[in-house]
Amino acid sequence: MIGPELLGRLFDEHGAALVLYARQWSEAPEDVVQEAFIALARLRAEPDHVAAWLFRAVRNRAISCGRSARRRRHREARAARDESWFSSLDDRLDAGRAAALLAELEPRTREVIVARIWGGLTLGEVAGLLGCSITTAHRRYRAGLSLLLDRLEGQGPCPTEMTDQAPTNR
């Protein structure tokens, strides 16, 4: 069994990234992450790659919860509410803009970027998480970053970066 000290350390190291990762599929990402840590605590032996195991467990639970939520909303005929992927208003990056750009990416590409950047997983761990080769994970990562950069450059400055200067006539 995994001890409480190790669980606490793992939660401190990976909790925030796991919540962000789960937000792709679930409206209750904190619950999904908590369930993954409970499952980890119940294991008889520590997995070889704990971070990758946690991301896979969170992914599977989040997808399952997301499907359940969609079915429930459909039955109850409620519209899904739009939820930001980022919670901090102090972030330098315009969170709404970043979330919109990430949402425009193909799901597998978005998943690679979130797991790699915010999750801190290696490309090997990302490949294991997605069930693809390291080369495929790397290709998706590079393509996704390229698309994000192109879209960021094409949209002009972020509203928080704009100044109050009057336009000049040239």
UniProtKB/TrEMBL annotation:
GO MF annotation terms: DNA binding; sigma factor activity
Domain (RNA polymerase sigma-70 region): residue spans on this chain: 11-71
InterPro entries: RNA_pol_sigma-70-like (IPR039425), RNA_pol_sigma-70_dom (IPR014284), RNA_pol_sigma70_r2 (IPR007627), RNA_pol_sigma70_r4_t2 (IPR013249), RNA_pol_sigma_r2 (IPR013325), RNA_pol_sigma_r3/r4-like (IPR013324), WH-like_DNA-bd_sf (IPR036388)
Keyword annotations from UniProtKB, A to Z: DNA-binding, Sigma factor, Transcription, Transcription regulation
Organism domain of life: Bacteria
Domain RNA polymerase sigma factor 70 region 4 type residue range list: 99-145
One Pfam entry name: Sigma70_r2
This protein's record includes keyword Nucleotidyltransferase: no
One Gene Ontology term from the biological process aspect of the record: DNA-templated transcription initiation
Family membership noted in the UniProt record: Belongs to the sigma-70 factor family. ECF subfamily.
Protein name, entry field: RNA polymerase sigma factor CnrH
Record organism: Tautonia plasticadhaerens
Organism lineage string: Bacteria, Pseudomonadati, Planctomycetota, Planctomycetia, Isosphaerales
Gene: cnrH_2
